[in-house]
Amino acid sequence: MAGERIAADAARGPSHADSSGAATGPEGEPPPSEHDRPALPLRPAFLFLRSLRRGLARGASPLEALGGAAVGVPGEAREAFEAALRRLEGDFPEDEWGFDEGFAETVYPLLELMYERWWRAKAVGVPNVPGHGRALLVANHAGVLPWDALMISTAILREHPLPRFARFLVLKWAFDLPWLSVAVRKLGGAVASPYNAMRLLEEDHLVTVFPEGERGVGKRWSERYRLQRFGRGGFVEIALRTGAPIVPVAVVGSEEIYPKLANLPAMARVLGMPNFPVTPTFPALGPLGAVPLPSRWRIEFCEPIETAHLGPEAAEDRQLVLELSEQVRETVQEHLLEGVFERGAPFL
Amino acid sequence: MAGRRVLLTGVSSYLGTEIARGLATDPSIEYVAGLDDRPPRARLDGVEFIEADIRSSALTEIVPATRVDTVIHNKIVRRPGPGVSARAVHDVNVIGTLQLVAACERTPSVGAIVVRGSAGIYGAEPEAPQFFTEELSRLYPLRTRFQRDVGEIESLFDAFARRNRGVVCTMLRYQPAIGPTLDTQITRYLSLPLVPTPLGFDPRLQLVHERDAVDATLAAVRAPVRGPVNVAGPGTIGLSRLLRRAGKAALPVPRALFATATLAARRLGLANVSPDLRRLLLYGRAVDTTRLTEEVGFRPRYSTPEAVEDWVRSRGSRRVTSAVGELLPGR
Q1: Is residue B172 part of a domain?
Q2: Do A85 and B321 touch (CB under 8 A)?
Q3: Across the strands, what pairs with B198?
């Protein structure tokens, strides 16, 4: 739902920009390119500044330019102000999972910035994600912070013809941390638990899971893009029970954002973390170490594997479950290696 | 067929009185007995009040004499009143239940027992599933005294149900109740002038409206089912959103100091935040209510956000921001 709102917003963006552009001069400025659509609360300010700049460039007096620029603003500014007020009153939607659409919309431009500029991500095979109904996205995992999950969501929001916000399951460890736990939940995260996965799929959501789990988080730099064991195939059982198609996703780039050189298990135990990574920037630079390196990303959505025809009873069939799990793992691994090759140099 | 005969323990609590009222107006029920150690606040027509301490062994004579077919156990203390020791609470909760179970064993006419238990048994855990179903009550150790009490109450009734196959035992697991007239631990906490909240946490809370809390018990009396049933308003609400709806100012306190802050509030006689509530305010908890709607056939009238809304309306609190909104020029 958030996705639809965001998409509608994106579609509306240029037309808004048009009208305010027209306000600056009768000769008709070229409409602003579709590329720059700033954040929801920032948009009025951006448009205002742009109109002001144009007015000044055409040689109008500063006061005139200011007046001209202000014409386009009140409606937008008022809207943003009112939205902020509504939030302050607690009048904003929040679903039973704690997913906060307004928050997600506000943060989305930041995610887009990370996607586009920081990681220069490229998405391949996005139409393989079902446009509606449930689906289980199974991806490789790396890094303590769920950037990969957020970038998968961003890729679907940006590139899919029917965008929607994918929910994701993250290690329970994140839910014991101040702020991070709140942000993760507001962006559609839930604790990695089969009960959560089942319920989300039954509610026809897109759910991103990382069967590598903790083993994925703890990968060393030298182990990057080598998939770890996929648990006991629990994700396949869940897909079979709910009849959800499995979409293997190969994320290239995420395994280079926090190059792990060593692990300090004693430190991890003291802090209650799944592991305590030592990267070139962490813990040497403290909180700055949480800034991910700007690797180049490539997110590939593979052909979905249908499970509905097998029926929920198939979940009891250990052999089938393990076979499917292996099939998914191999698909992700294969596309990972291809993807690493396709992408080329990681940081250039 | 003669009407049903019902015994209700804890009749003098607010919800107990309301449940007794509902029972007394039900035409299919011919006799209602209300048991408590203090008289009800209001006069209850059509309810025979029995003054007895639930902890006393006199129960084994009182209960059989009423010849009831249904027992509702509502005498479970969630919020100790002032001057009540933790030990006394434990006694009422566990020894009281023990006496009641013993009394039910001696009452052959009993065919159904409905317990107004607590979803507190699930605890509040960072790694918990976002919705507890009834079979997940043993995922985590029982951490607090109240949780252990509830655990003991549940196992007493489980054992009773195993021994007496003919008796239907319904264990209602209530999420905290909220409502205009209710005075509970949570409403007191939320009514503090400055509400201390754990810094950096925003738990998902799930509540049940007081009206639904009463009606759920009545529905379970009408259609008792075996085993535990979660009772809650559908949906959840984040603590910060709840406070904003209520126009309350939050005082974020670092987690390490949160216990101290709530203890201070207790010392000042402002609010008693139990360890259970403290954990709830850190990690939150929500339950799955499929069993309640499908097997008991009860659909709560208020979702959790609506229950909060009703509580906020009743307090008649003024929104600070609405005043600011009015200052804006008209569209």
Answers
A1: yes
A2: yes
A3: B253
d(CA A242, CA A135): 9
- Verify cis geometry, omega within 30 degrees of 0, for the bond prior to B305: no
* Chain B interface test: which of A89, A170, A201 (most B C-beta within 10 Å): A89
Q: Which domain holds residue B92?
A: 4-178+208-232+286-295
Pick the residue from chain A with its C-alpha nearest to B320: A89
Q: Please report the number of interchain residue pairs, chain A to chain B, with beta-carbon separation below 8 angstroms.
A: 90
CB-CB under 8 Å, A91 with B126: no
For residue A103, list chain B residues with Cβ-Cβ distance below 8 A. Answer: none
Cα A302 to its chain centre, rounded Å, is 18
pLDDT in tens, chain A (348 residues): 444 445 444 444 444 434 443 344 344 444 444 444 444 456 666 777 777 777 777 777 766 677 666 666 666 666 777 777 788 888 888 899 999 988 998 899 999 999 999 999 999 999 999 999 999 999 998 877 889 999 999 999 999 999 999 999 998 878 888 898 999 999 999 999 999 999 999 999 999 999 988 777 778 888 888 888 888 889 999 999 999 999 999 999 998 888 888 888 888 788 777 778 888 888 878 777 788 889 999 999 999 999 999 999 999 999 999 999 999 999 999 999 999 999 988 887
Domain limits of chain A?
A: 2-88, 101-257+292-343
Q: Which helix (H) or strand (E) holds B252?
A: strand B249-253
All residues of chain A having their beta carbon less than 8 Å from the beta carbon of residue B242 are 90
pTM above 0.90, yes or no: no
Ramachandran area for residue A39 (φ above 0: left; ψ -120 to 50: alpha; else beta) = beta
Would residue B40 count as lying in a domain? yes
